[in-house]
Write a structure and sequence with these properties.
single chain, 308 residues, alpha+beta, Phosphorylase Kinase, domain 1, 34% helix, binds zinc ion
Length: 308
């Protein structure tokens, strides 16, 4: 009888242990995150748990200087161009017509950073394939001296004072058409539909003048890069709205051309330690306000790493 009780006690203890283990396993299973959907806002913790199973990571240390550099800088009447901004490899297009692939320039003064010229050439090539071939650049990069001259010439109604124009960033272009006004020309129509596919956005749309503070300019395009231009296009956001949205959501996902992007906003008070993929598939862009937007993506090679 005594033996029976001991055996039964043992069985009961074993049963409790097994039950406990199963329960714990279930708990862990319940905490695992399912596959992400494109464009669905996700919390920061979910992003981190995704990264742990993703490609190899490295740690970067960012500081406040990182707020003021990159392709998402917000420049408007209340956010001036960062003082220490460096725009590199600016070239005069008239002097480098060999580098221009199938478009015209308004005059000898048009300048662009070389990288922007490459991006615009890609856009022009895509438009050409659609039979749209009459692009004319009216203005590209402007330094403060050029902007001051323009401001004096056109006045505050039509030009921003030096230090408050996106053209000072080297990321904006005034694109025209030799066939007429951009509002109705084939070039204007094409850009409205397709510019986002090449990283460009119409910066001052007709229905957002109350947000941008700038009149409708169907010719002024700003480079923000992919996947940002795709998300902005999808939701109809101007840059002010997009940056506010990222800040509010902390982190979102977007799928563009088969790549899965995670776009996260981080405030920077003094220093920020950040984990990014060590294979270089990330970008960091300051918002010119109080933080940075970190974009990571998974390409084919990182997928193999996950599988292995
Ligand atoms: Zn412009």
């Amino acid at each position: 009888m005594k033996k029976m009780i001991v055996v039964m006690m043992l069985l009961l203890v074993c049963g409790l242990i097994i039950f406990g283990k199963q329960y714990a396993a279930k708990e862990n299973g319940g905490n695992e995150k399912g596959p992400k959907q494109a464009d669905q806002p996700q919390s920061q913790t979910q992003t981190q748990s995704r990264n742990q199973s993703g490609p190899k990571q490295k740690v970067l240390t960012l500081d406040k200087g990182d707020i003021y550099t990159g392709e998402l800088l917000l420049v408007n009447t209340t956010h001036p161009v960062p003082k220490k901004l460096k725009v590199s490899h600016v070239i005069n297009l008239f002097d480098h017509q060999d580098l221009m692939k199938g478009f015209g320039i308004m005059d000898k003064s048009v300048e662009l950073p070389e990288e922007m010229l490459t991006r615009f050439n890609a856009l022009v090539a895509a438009a050409k394939a659609d039979g749209v071939t009459h692009f004319l650049i009216n203005s590209g990069y402007r330094d403060n001296k050029k902007q001051a001259e323009l401001y004096e010439q056109l006045g505050s109604e039509q030009a921003n004072p030096p230090g408050y124009s996106e053209h000072n960033l080297g990321l904006s272009m005034d694109i025209g058409s030799t066939l007429g006004a951009m509002k109705s020309s084939p070039e204007g129509e094409w850009l409205k539909e397709n510019a986002w596919k090449y990283g460009f956005v119409m910066r001052y749309p007709e229905d957002k003048t109350n947000i941008t503070g700038i009149m409708y300019e169907p010719w002024h395009f700003r480079y923000v890069g992919l996947p940002h231009s795709a998300v902005m296009h999808k939701y109809g956001f101007v840059l002010e709205e997009y940056l506010a949205y990222l800040k509010e959501q902390s982190s979102i996902h977007a799928e563009v051309d088969g790549l899965m992007y995670t776009i996260s906003y981080y405030p920077i008070k003094s220093k920020l330690e950040l984990t990014v993929p060590s294979n270089g598939s990330y970008t960091i862009a300051g918002d010119n306000m109080d933080g940075v937007i970190v974009t990571t993506w998974e390409d084919d090679s990182s997928r193999k790493e996950v599988a292995g």
